[in-house]
Specification:
This protein is an alpha+beta fold and 149 residues long. It contains 7 helices and 6 strands, in the order βαβαβααβαααββ. α5 packs across α7.
């Protein structure tokens, strides 16, 4: 798993400057690589960066902010974040209720006369409150869902 971290000062001035980093490295090693890249900026004083590309995340769509949120969820533990992205990622949905509905309909035969009584919003909320899943909201009606185990 690798991420491309871009120098935003250079980017905002039309220059491509960044570095590919092994996302499984220790967080201190990643920070050191980012700081080294920023120190070599063609724009002199650079301090802001963003993830502009990635590879090897097994279907998880990583953006510059969601990757950070995934790492933050695990207290900066890259191994746990990698496991979540590779093994526990459920997908991107409009809501947790949409995921609960899809999961229920794929695993259970629901009689049509009872389907109107199922509250998928409550099911999704219960999945979250019980700790079975966690979510990363990426914007309006865009939620990444992960199993917690």
């Amino acid at each position: 798993m690798r991420i491309y971290v871009a120098d935003l000062a250079a980017h905002n001035n039309g220059k491509l400057h960044g570095v590919w980093i092994n996302a499984c490295d220790d967080l201190d090693v990643i920070k050191a690589q980012i700081n080294e890249m920023l120190a070599k900026s063609p724009e002199g004083f650079a301090e802001e960066y963003a993830i502009h590309d990635y590879e090897g995340f097994s279907g998880y769509t990583l953006s510059e902010y969601e990757g950070g949120e995934l790492l933050n969820h695990f207290g900066g533990d890259l191994e746990d974040a990698r496991t979540a992205a590779e093994e526990n990622y459920c997908g991107c949905y409009k809501s947790l209720a949409d995921y609960a509905q899809e999961l229920t309909e794929e695993t259970t035969q629901i009689p049509e006369n009872l389907s109107y009584y199922i509250d998928f919003e409550r099911m999704g909320r219960d999945m979250d409150l019980s700790g079975d899943v966690f979510t990363i909201e990426a914007g309006y009606e865009t939620v990444h869902i992960f199993w917690n185990h």
